[in-house]
Amino acid sequence: MSSPSDAKRRLGQPTLAMLPRIADSLSFLYMESVRIVQDDTGVCAQVESPRGIERVYLPTASLACVLLGPGTSITQPAMATFARHGTSLVCVGAGGVRAYAGILPAQLTTDWLEHQARAWANEDERLRVAIRMYEHRFGNAPTGASLAQLRGLEGQRIKALYRMLATKYGITRFRRNYDPAAWDEQDPVNLALSAANAALYGTVHAAVLALGCSPALGFIHSGTQMAFVYDIANLYKAKVTIPLAFSLAGSTRPERDARVQLREEFRLIKLMPTIISDVQNMLAPDTAQSSPAGRTADIVHLWDPDLGSLPAGVNYSDDLAGDIEIPW
Question: Residues 93, 67: contact at Cβ < 8 Å?
Fold first, then answer.
């Protein structure tokens, strides 16, 4: 018979039925200079102040992504709780700028990773996925345009967007500049855009991991562990982060304001379910129509080139052909 403490512990362990789908999760939470710990009540972020230790409890089951900024430390029990809830942890630089590493939730199948890997490994299919990504940005891409032509058209589109927004917000001259070595010398628009893009990368990273895909197997970008994240994030910059950055041209705290406003913008446009749907449609449009978005059961099976998927955890000794010589 189990003890009350055992029952309490089991109730505290989330099941797949209890967990919210990734598409329903809050987008991201950025923290810096705090210590994240697990206590008897839950996971909290704590900081020392003149009033003592102040704590804020975190909605771990509802967070898709936690961005861990400089000065942040986290205990192993807290990390274990995030892992059980499928929350991605992404280590980022100051102000959420630049993502360095992410922790993959474990309770996933490899269905979408396999779709991604097959498409990435086949040059013809990889080209089709890349073209779908450009077509998604354009709305209506020119029929028969090559990948090189689409890259050029995308560059023209972004330049035109910069000019339009600069005129709208009274900016006489704008040039995109990202220089970590001279960070504080950048203008407010560049600071806001870098901070907003980093938050977008973190959110997309969380969605990619939640589907079980590889952030490294990109179709337009390559050569980095974040290649696929950059591919997907670029679907939304012209709609979300670029207009937001220009609107903060007069801000005295453009990085902070970008993160605060972006979180609300993500909620209003329901970005997380949009990312999930778009990733699926980019990789396998036909399969995406019949596949539910979100976390799936942890199913392990065996692969066979002739029979397809076979159940795991089964002893197949009876299937041995009679003429096979046993080597022992």
Answer: no
